[in-house]
Design a protein that fits this description.
Elements: E1 2-5, E2 8-9, E3 15-19, E4 22-26, E5 34-40, E6 43-51, H1 77-94, E7 101-106, E8 114-121, E9 126-131, E10 138-140, H2 149-152, H3 155-165, E11 172-179, E12 182-188, H4 195-207, E13 212-215, E14 218-222, E15 228-230, E16 233-235, H5 247-261, E17 266-270, H6 278-281, E18 286-291, H7 294-306, E19 313-317, E20 335-338, H8 346-354, E21 359-364, H9 367-379, E22 383-391, E23 400-406
Parallel strand pairs: 7-22, 12-13, 17-18, 17-20, 18-19, 20-21
Antiparallel strand pairs: 1-5, 2-3, 3-4, 5-6, 8-9, 8-11, 9-10, 11-12, 13-14, 15-16, 21-23, 22-23
Length: about 400
């Protein structure tokens, strides 16, 4: 066993120790802690904390340390808010940028409204949970402190679905979303769907009062529309369609976006999803909402048409990676909202940089690609007015943010 001092945290939340052979990663440690353990390549194993950080707290979940869902339950909320902001600060600094930061916002415990469980049948029982980090060992969850209680209460329904349609040779992926009308369950990886299995699954949806049940691409039951509220609109995302992880995180992101856009009367929302930002913004502005997945565009359009008192929302299906909105196409917009996937939107940012748009509200789930794209805008004359970190993925290394650019 060797002794080390943890210097900082990596992007995934592991402690990092410098050595002559390179970085050594020490899971479940914090900066400044003195630890001892056994180096195994780039990992430290058999870790014992000899001098604990003042920010170390007792994990709340019995599964912590095994379940791969959380990596930072041993860190205080104050530390995590500061560390996640520092991740963004360092990403910007690497591009020669800095910014004013608004206070970070964190989602509370038991607020995640969506999760994808793994289900596995054994000879005697069903296991439903998350894999251990970097492993195919499945942790059968008895409790969870990040998920809404309704998701954990779905276990009997998921177990019944697993018994009916799972095999002992593989695993099921069970995506469960808590909607305003009940649970929306989308399953993949199960047995081929035949008339007998379809009937069994439909009966389970009825018995467990599911709003919707989908088996791969087939809708088994739609007993109620599994809607989410986006401002005045009610939208039922397609099975597996993107949805912000928590209602509280979504509200924080939306508030920041609305503030960034300000009094703009014509807004383009790029990578609009099902209308998370577009539909609430339509309460005060006309919106062009552009999204690559046609099913999400259709869900957003229906939500707008059925809502009262909204300005016009033009919902357009367009792959912005292959066909970014060109600079001249954005000439009539007062502001643009852009919320790309983790890869960022390098090509789209280049077009924004060359456009006449004056205000951009940028939403990101990856500080590295955000900083890269921010440099593109700043090099074109935009100023980075402020950044706000929003922590939807509690106790993980995942960082989300909203930033305002103007010129």
């Amino acid at each position: 066993m060797e002794k080390f001092t943890v210097e900082r945290l990596g992007m995934e939340g592991d402690g990092i120790i410098s050595s002559l052979s390179g970085a050594i990663y020490a899971p479940y440690t914090l900066p400044g802690e003195n630890v001892q353990g056994q180096p195994d390549g780039s990992r430290l194993t058999h870790i014992e904390v000899l001098g604990a950080s003042e920010f170390r707290v007792k994990p709340v979940c019995r599964h912590f340390g095994r379940c791969g869902g959380c990596s930072l339950q041993h860190a205080s909320d104050a530390f995590l808010a500061s560390w996640k902001q520092d991740v963004v600060v360092r990403a910007l600094a690497a591009q020669g940028l800095d910014a004013m930061f608004r206070p970070a916002v964190s989602s509370p415990e038991r607020s995640r409204r969506r999760a994808t469980f793994t289900g596995r049948r054994t000879r005697k029982t069903e296991q439903i949970g998350f894999f251990e980090s970097g492993s195919e060992v499945l942790v059968d969850l008895a409790e969870c402190h990040i998920l809404r209680p309704a998701l954990m209460a779905a276990r009997p329904a998921l177990a019944a679905i697993l018994r009916a349609g799972g095999s002992r040779n593989g695993v099921l992926r069970l995506t469960v979303t808590d909607s305003l009308e009940g649970l929306d369950v989308a399953v993949s990886g199960g047995k081929p769907l035949d008339i007998v299995l379809r009937g069994t699954l439909a009966g389970l949806a009825e018995a467990h009062d599911l709003a919707r049940l989908t088996w791969d691409e087939d809708q088994i039951a739609l007993r109620r529309r599994p809607v989410q509220r986006f401002g005045r609109a009610l939208v039922a995302p397609p099975p597996g369609g993107f949805l912000q992880a928590t209602a509280e995180g979504e509200a924080a992101l939306l508030a920041a976006v609305v503030d960034a856009v300000g009094p703009a009367k014509r807004v383009a929302d790029l990578f609009a999803g099902c209308g998370t930002f577009a539909l609430p913004l339509a309460e005060r502005a006309e919106v062009l909402a552009v999204e690559g997945e046609a099913a999400m565009v259709a869900a957003m359009d229906r939500g707008w048409r059925e809502a009262a008192g909204l300005h016009k929302v033009d919902s357009v299906a367009r792959d912005l990676f292959r066909r970014p909105m060109l600079a001249h196409e954005m000439k009539n917009f007062d502001a643009v909202v852009i919320d790309p996937p983790r890869a960022g939107a390098a090509a789209q940012m280049m077009e924004l940089a060359q456009s006449a748009v004056k205000v951009i509200a940028a939403v990101s789930c990856n500080p590295i690609t955000f900083a890269r794209d921010a440099k593109t805008l700043c090099d074109a004359g935009f100023s980075l007015d402020w950044v706000q970190v929003v922590d939807q993925f509690r106790w993980t290394g995942h960082v989300e943010l909203v930033a305002r650019f103007s010129r």
